[in-house]
Design goal:
alpha+beta, nine-stranded antiparallel β-sheet, globular
Length: about 375
């Protein structure tokens, strides 16, 4: 076995040939079909990105290891639709653009697509990823994962505490035991190369709540629910901006776009096509979390339909541990059947890296 491994590696690295690799090790074939769009805006050192892309994945198990299965039985089809919002400051990118104006050959270093991964930079990101098993005659297993990410070069405790307060606000810290232990970060220096990531997994039964309170109820009750999720102050502020000044009866006449989107669900059913159904669910969740008060939405959906936790990493100055990798307690219930999504399930089951399965190595702007 050792001889085969060495022979295979030698051929791979010296002649770039995969004949031995294919002969001795049956490969899992992976095919990604990507379609997307990236919009970027740069003003001095500030950068904003909005990216949308779909990923159709075909996974084919090797015939040699599964001789009793035909090609159809050895093939799995997956689908993911992604929406990403990111903004931040990239001072390195700005300086490189200034130097590049005078000389194309002068740069201070390679600029990253994420400002939070650059020298002295920082960024905030929101990822919405809905994924499904679209294999014929299989359960779709549609889940949506939301990531809120803060990362950058350095953050002192006051800055971290502001982020922690916002995260706890999302989950109604006064009403439950979800919290982030600040003692680990107090009385130390800055957290270098920091990354704070709050992840929410929303399971399919969330749609039962949408049907109960929006789709299958009368218009007035649906509107009342949406107003409570939007917030009366934010609604009034939206109407004032929309009308360019206070006018009598403006609150009745103006309706925020997100509210209109949710009201359009009334009288409709989700598509039977798994790709279209995944896109529809993705759009509903994205609308709720982008157009309404996020804390109100999370409280409305409740602990039975979602699971969330926060991970914090970085190098903490003045700490004996040095590198910190902290995971908060969780919110909601982890659904073992759906887990963290079909992509993570297939990745774990077959030993395929999620980086490859999600095609992050060929996706620009991530």
């Amino acid at each position: 076995e050792k001889h085969v491994v060495l022979k295979t590696l030698h051929q791979l690295f010296t002649s770039n040939s995969t004949s031995y690799l294919e002969q001795y090790y049956a490969p899992i074939k992976l095919q990604n079909d990507l379609e997307g769009r990236l919009n970027s805006l740069k003003v001095l050192w500030h950068k904003r990105d909005h990216m949308r892309y779909d990923n159709k994945v075909q996974v084919v198990l090797p015939e040699a290891e599964h001789p009793n299965l035909n090609l159809l039985e050895r093939t799995k089809h997956l689908y993911a639709t992604n929406t990403i919002y990111r903004h931040g400051n990239s001072y390195l990118g700005f300086l490189n653009s200034v130097f590049g104006y005078f000389n194309d050959y002068v740069q201070l270093g390679q600029d990253a697509s994420d400002p939070g991964q650059t020298l002295k930079g920082h960024s905030k990101s929101r990822y919405y990823i809905s994924e499904a098993d679209i294999t014929a005659h299989k359960s779709e297993m549609i889940t949506t994962k939301i990531d809120y990410i803060w990362q950058g070069w350095s953050a002192k405790f006051n800055k971290l505490n502001q982020i922690f307060n916002y995260i706890e606000y999302l989950f109604g810290a006064k009403n439950n035991d979800y919290h982030i232990n600040r003692e680990l970060f107090k009385n130390h220096g800055a957290l270098k190369g920091y990354k704070v990531q709050t992840t929410l997994i929303i399971y399919p039964k969330f749609y039962n709540i949408i049907k109960r309170d929006i789709i299958n109820t009368n218009y007035n009750q649906a509107m009342m629910k949406l107003k409570s999720l939007y917030g009366s102050k934010d609604w009034a502020q939206y109407c004032r901006k929309k009308s360019a000044g206070p006018r009598k009866g403006q609150t009745r006449k103006c309706t925020p776009l997100g509210v209109k989107t949710m009201l359009k669900l009334r009288g409709k059913q989700l598509s039977h096509n798994p790709i279209l159904k995944t896109k529809e669910i993705h759009h509903i969740i994205k609308t709720l979390f982008e157009s309404f008060d996020r804390a109100a939405v999370i409280n409305w959906l409740g602990k039975d339909v979602l699971f969330a936790s926060t991970r914090i990493t970085g190098f903490l100055e003045g700490s004996e541990k040095g590198y910190v990798d902290y995971i908060s307690n969780s919110y909601g219930k982890y659904d073992k059947y759906y887990g963290s999504g079909i992509f993570d399930h297939i990745s774990s089951l077959l030993g395929i890296g999620t980086y490859e399965l999600r095609a992050l190595n060929i996706t620009p702007g991530m």
